[in-house]
Amino acid sequence: MDCGMSLDRNTVAPGLAGQDRPAADSASDAGRGGRTSGRWGGPRCLRWTAAVIVGISGFGWWSREAGAQIASDVSRVGFVADVQAVVPETLFHLAVVVRLRDGWHTYWEHPGDSGAPPVIDVEAPDGFTVGAVRFPRPETFSTPEETTFGYAREAVFFIPVSAPVVLPSSPLRFRIRCTYLVCLGQCLIGEASGEVLLPPAAAGTTAARTAGPDGDLLDRHFRRLPQPIERLSGITLQREPGALIASGSTGGFTRMRFLPSEVSGVVIGDVHTTPGSEGRFTLRIQYEVRAQNLMPGTVPAIRGLLLLGDRPDDPAYQVHVPLPHPNQTKE
User: Fold this and answer.
1) Inter-residue contact 246 to 319 (CB < 8 Å)
2) Which of 81, 94, 300, 319 sees the fewest Cβ atoms within 10 Å?
3) Neighbouring C-beta atoms of residue 27, cutoff 10 Å
4) Per-residue pLDDT reduced to its tens digit, 88-147
5) How far apart are CA 190 and CA 120, in angstroms?
6) How far apart are CA 72 and CA 77, in angstroms?
């Protein structure tokens, strides 16, 4: 269902300390339920507009059409870096922090049966390389109708940035724009923009990490980023016709799950996880590669997350196993 939502821009500024979650509104939260579509918006989309106010810290206040709820009513967005200065030829992270009113959630990069992931754009100074957004381990939201993956109360999205050999002497300006979806029965599109200013540091020095409440927040969510599957103790990966079999250490956990990521032309079938003897598990992922659905230039692969345990702080591992193209010699 296409609601034809009109989207103007909410602009917020960097700095996270002191940004409280939006206050609850019991009247507007009452009686919500149902499901959303897999596109921006859903069966209960609302049309809204917002006036733009730009600040250096904290949040602006927005005016809107009378009676229309907007994403800034239920969420707050901030921008921060994990370093206090930029050293030439180093890697650091920018971060988009979304804080949500209780009950609302936003989405992982592969949201599941409905929803949409955030879209984040970074405008960096010349010479800098901006990498793909990194998503912490998601939570699971299940109803009788659907299962989705995302984040409640607070979400942090990390953007890796590589600095060039030579830096200008003036402060470095990184402009960030984020479009995101928040849902609780109805779904609202939010859009925030801001900037992070960082001073350049001398080559060969070590930039101080972001400290205080912002640093604690970033550290907490950075630990939830999935690790490469190769870091799982004793992991083995074996490909059979139509199936990928992974085996590794349970690490003392009794529950393992696989969250597949969407890859064009690759259909994930049944997934079976079996705890084995001596603290090991076996994961069997059935798949089918459909040549007619492969996008040009796409390498078929099984991608997703292997989750140990059920808590957001429990380990997560990134699975990425290339598959033979169906036009190649069969396995």
Assistant:
1) yes
2) 300
3) 7
4) 999 999 999 999 999 999 999 999 999 999 999 999 999 999 999 999 999 999 989 999
5) 12
6) 9
**105-112 and 119-123 as β-strands: parallel, antiparallel, unpaired?**
unpaired
- CA contacts within 13 A on the Cβ side of 326: 13
| CA neighbours closer than 13 Å in the CB half-sphere of residue 323 | 31
Q: Which domains does the chain have, with CATH numbers?
A: 26-222 (2.60.40.10), 227-322 (2.60.40)
d(CA 300, CA 242): 13
DSSP state of 22: P
Tokens matching residue 274: 């079996």
Rounded to an integer, what distance in angstroms lies between the CA atom of residue 193 and that of residue 124?
14
The string of DSSP letters for 256-276 reads: EEEEEPPBTTEEEEEEEEEE-
Q: Which H or E run contains 159?
A: strand 154-162
Parallel, antiparallel or unpaired: strands 316-322 and 227-228:
parallel
pTM of the model: 0.79
Annotate 187-243 with three-state secondary structure: EEEEEEEEEEEECECCCCCCCCECCHHHHHHHHHHHCCCCEEHHHCCCCEEEEECCE
The H or E element that residue 93 is part of is strand 91-100
Nearby residues of 66 by Cβ (< 8 Å), 6 or more positions away: none
Q: What CA–CA distance (Å, rounded) separates 318 from 260? A: 10
Rounded average pLDDT over 33-55: 28
